[in-house]
């Protein structure tokens, strides 16, 4: 069961979608305009938003952009216009799917179920994105690092550096590759910046510092033990 927010200025459309959604066992809340939809999303959680494009005042594109500023709740957009430009604009605004009117309520329910399955599956995969090697645990999803079960407080760049090296464990990483990836192409520093961060990172990792191996004349490698 999901909590759906159905947003459309046409009452008959809201009632149609709500009827089929409730038949599928979902809870439904309705809004007749974009401003109300944004306010509702700020005040309570929803699992899915069915959002019309053409509404008076704030249209669906603007509403979606505002909603995306504070939540990743999946959005399925409804529109009487099926032009490619409108679909592209919708996806750029952050929608997960786009359905043209008139639509089949049954197909709409299937699309809602597909989005829910896809997003839930992605969240499940994210929960599993944890690496452990001996006394070191790296939680990529939560951006957390533990040594012997104790949290390690790293700087943002130290997190980025460690995460990249762990993701590419067992691979010889040149200094140039590490600097380009972690600091960016427009970085104006030199290799000493990288070496300093490696030194600080090793200090923070304590007994797990040996997992980072120096490759003379090349760079570094994270050992997968």
Automatic annotation (TrEMBL):
Residues 128-224 form the OmpR/PhoB-type domain. Residues 128-224 bind DNA. Residues 3-116 form the Response regulatory domain. PROSITE patterns: OMPR_PHOB (PS51755), RESPONSE_REGULATORY (PS50110). InterPro entries: CheY-like_superfamily (IPR011006), OmpR/PhoB-type_DNA-bd (IPR001867), Sig_transdc_resp-reg_C-effctor (IPR016032), Sig_transdc_resp-reg_receiver (IPR001789), WalR-like (IPR039420), WH-like_DNA-bd_sf (IPR036388). Keywords: DNA-binding, Phosphoprotein, Transcription, Transcription regulation, Two-component regulatory system. May play the central regulatory role in sporulation. It may be an element of the effector pathway responsible for the activation of sporulation genes in response to nutritional stress. Spo0A may act in concert with spo0H (a sigma factor) to control the expression of some genes that are critical to the sporulation process. This is Stage 0 sporulation protein A homolog. It comes from Bittarella massiliensis (ex Durand et al. 2017).
